[in-house]
Design goal:
The chain is of the alpha/beta class. The chain is built from 14 helices and 12 strands. The strands form 3 sheets. The chain has an 8-stranded mixed β-sheet with strand order 3-2-1-4-5-6-12-9, sandwiched between helices. The chain has a two-stranded antiparallel ribbon with strand order 7-8. The longest helix has 14 residues. It is globular. The relative contact order is 0.16.
Length: 318
């Protein structure tokens, strides 16, 4: 089996943490690095969280710290959903290890150059690191195979009626990504809200027995309560959906579309404007927008992936 080289840019975040738990056990994916960015919480905390998760899953990939704020805007975070620590208050031991000094955007370019057109970027947070990399390294688009992005929505939003959080935090960087010439897969709210876990399904995963499966369950407990209080059936697995698409695209329905990001609107800043449902089309159809997921098979795949951890020791809990 030829593995897919991937670099995961993220802002852990409970669903980012869940996505890393899954990505590490997907044999089709070869994680070259994880880069961190400010988003769900500040970059200092997202980097710490990535280190904690790497230790929990016995990961061997390097982690590179990225941008502490958007390219031109004031940072917006989401501690009310992810908790002050970004992991829903779940305790994980902090490993004693040094961090590389190389910046995230430089690592993205270096690794993309090494793979010369074969690297897939999986982006799970605001797109600031990618925007900086594109601005600094003009040849970067030619070195990337595709960008699988958790972000945006063809219809609606979550942080505002018009905008999804990851795009809203840094809309200028997001528009750069859509316009850079690299094929983009937009795994937005249209599909991730269908990729949810009910409380019963979450308990089934926790019962798999490994510390990793139990952490997968625990990190969603607070957000699950919020989602149920909002009248939803469960908690959406936003970032895991993007990771699973990178390995198992047949689980999803994708439609080609033109996508741009609104950066000026008073009420619509951060909106991913698509021509998917419009009579008038953009000149360029620059993205694939995910619109549907086989939820039963999606959940079956998640259980299968997490079962690969087996019944390991609890050492990572500290």
């Amino acid at each position: 089996m030829k593995r897919i080289p991937v670099l995961i840019d993220c802002d852990p975040g409970v669903d980012d943490a869940a996505a890393l738990l899954l990505a590490n056990q997907i044999p089709e994916l070869d994680i070259q690095a994880v880069t961190t960015v400010a988003g769900n919480v500040e970059v200092e905390q997202t980097t710490v969280n990535a280190q904690k998760i790497r230790s929990l899953i016995n990961g061997t990939f390097p982690i590179y710290r990225g941008a502490e704020k958007p390219m031109v805007r004031t940072l917006v975070t989401a501690p009310e959903f992810h908790g002050a620590d970004g992991l829903g208050g779940v305790f994980l031991e902090m490993p004693q290890e040094s961090m590389p000094t190389e910046k995230a955007w430089d690592a993205i370019y270096r690794i993309a150059k090494a793979y010369d057109g074969e690297l897939t970027l999986i982006t799970l947070g605001p797109l600031t690191n990618i925007g900086i990399a594109l601005a600094k390294y003009r040849e970067l688009p030619a070195l990337l195979k595709r960008i699988v992005m958790m972000g945006g929505a063809a219809v609606g939003g979550n942080v505002t009626p018009a905008a999804e959080f990851n795009i809203y935090v840094d809309p200028e960087a997001a528009d750069m990504v859509f316009c850079c010439g690299v094929p983009v897969v937009m795994c937005g709210l249209d599909v991730t809200m269908q990729a949810y876990l009910t409380p019963e399904e979450t308990e089934e995963i926790g019962a798999l027995g490994s510390p990793q499966a139990r952490i997968f369950r625990e990190i969603f407990q607070d957000s699950m309560k919020k989602c149920l209080a909002w009248g939803r059936k469960g908690v959406a697995l936003h970032d895991p959906a993007a990771v699973l698409y990178a390995a198992y695209p047949d689980l999803f329905t994708a439609e080609k579309a033109g996508v741009r990001v609104e950066t000026k609107g008073m009420l619509t800043v951060g909106k991913t404007v698509t021509d998917l449902y419009s009579d008038q089309k953009f000149e360029e159809r620059n993205a694939f927008v995910l619109t549907d997921v086989d939820r039963a098979q999606f959940l079956k795949t998640i259980r299968m992936i997490l079962a690969r951890y087996g019944n390991q020791s609890d050492a990572a809990f500290g």
